[in-house]
UniProtKB/TrEMBL annotation:
Pfam families: Asp23. Belongs to the asp23 family. This is Asp23/Gls24 family envelope stress response protein. Residues 1-20 are annotated as: Disordered. PANTHER family: ALKALINE SHOCK PROTEIN 23, HYPOTHETICAL CYTOSOLIC PROTEIN-RELATED.
Length: 137
């Protein structure tokens, strides 16, 4: 027989219990959201700057990141993590010809699904800024 714990009855986070708590770091949520974003076709995290079709030269930010070694964190994504909740902000480029609203909806759904299923955190929001269009090269 499966019995429900007092924590489950109260709707509390599975990360907090009578025997201790589990803290999920920002970097973990960031990595999961980054991987989840990469699973969605037609969306690419924005690295800043705008390019013309066929232009493969680095933006100023990319150039400086190459020189300094960058921050080691994906650009175009930020997270806020609390005890039982997380929020994600994404800045993306969408492939030209794709329906922007559909891509954003799929991206939001995938990020929420992955973060919640892998961490036990409740994702309160995934805010998406479409910064640019990506053209085939």
């Amino acid at each position: 027989m499966v019995t429900e714990t007092s924590q489950e009855r109260a709707g509390a986070s599975p990360l907090q219990g009578d025997r201790g708590t589990t803290k999920i770091g920002d970097g973990v949520v960031l990595a999961i959201a980054n991987a989840a974003a990469g699973e969605v076709g037609g969306a690419h995290l924005s690295h800043g700057g705008t390019r013309l079709p066929g232009d493969s030269s680095p933006t100023v930010g990319e150039f400086l990141g190459n020189i300094t070694g960058g921050s080691g964190r994906p650009r175009g994504i930020s997270v806020e993590v609390g005890e039982s909740q997380a929020a994600v902000d994404l800045t993306i480029n969408v492939d030209y010809g794709k329906n922007i609203a559909s891509v954003a909806q799929e991206l939001r759904r995938n990020v929420i699904s992955r973060v919640e299923s892998l961490t036990g955190l409740h994702v309160t929001e995934v805010n998406i800024v479409v910064n640019d269009l990506a053209f085939e090269q």
